[in-house]
Specification:
The protein is of the alpha+beta class. Helix content is 20%, strand content 30%. It contains 2 helices and 5 strands. A hairpin with a 2-residue loop joins strand 1 and strand 2. It is globular, with a radius of gyration of 13 Å. The mean pLDDT is 84.
Length: 103
C-alpha cells in the first residue's frame, strides 16, 4: 500500500521512494525540528533522495547521526544520499514549507 501523495514518489535505482515517509522519520530523529526531502539527479540511480534538516534549538546536529537514525528506520534505497543541515526553510504563502527547488 502507498501512503502519502503518489505524485511525489519516484524511482531510485528501480525502487520506489516516498519522500514524505522519509520526512516523517527524519522529524522523529532527536534534534530535528523539520525536514524536507527532494529527488535529485544521480548519475547511477537516475534520481536519489536528498534531505534538508532544520535542527531544533537544543544545539548542533551531526548529519552522520541523522543518517544513522534513518538507516535504522528505512529501507536502504530510501536513505537520503545527502543530508544538509540548514538554518531556515522557505515558507510558501500558505505557511507550509515550500517544496520548490532552490535556485
Amino acid at each position: 500500500r502507498f501512503h502519502g501523495r503518489i505524485d511525489r514518489m519516484f524511482k531510485s535505482g528501480g525502487k520506489l521512494v516516498n519522500p514524505e515517509a522519509v520526512e516523517n522519520i527524519l522529524r522523529r530523529c532527536p534534534g530535528v525540528r523539520e525536514a524536507l526531502c527532494r529527488a535529485r539527479p544521480h548519475p547511477l540511480l537516475g534520481l536519489a533522495l536528498e534531505a534538508e534538516v532544520l535542527p531544533s534549538v537544543r544545539g548542533p546536529l551531526d548529519p552522520e547521526q541523522v543518517a544513522a537514525f534513518v538507516r535504522k528506520e528505512c529501507e536502504p534505497h530510501a536513505v537520503p544520499r545527502v543530508i544538509r543541515i540548514v538554518d531556515s526553510m522557505t515558507l510558501a504563502a500558505s505557511g507550509k514549507i515550500s517544496r520548490a527547488s532552490p535556485a
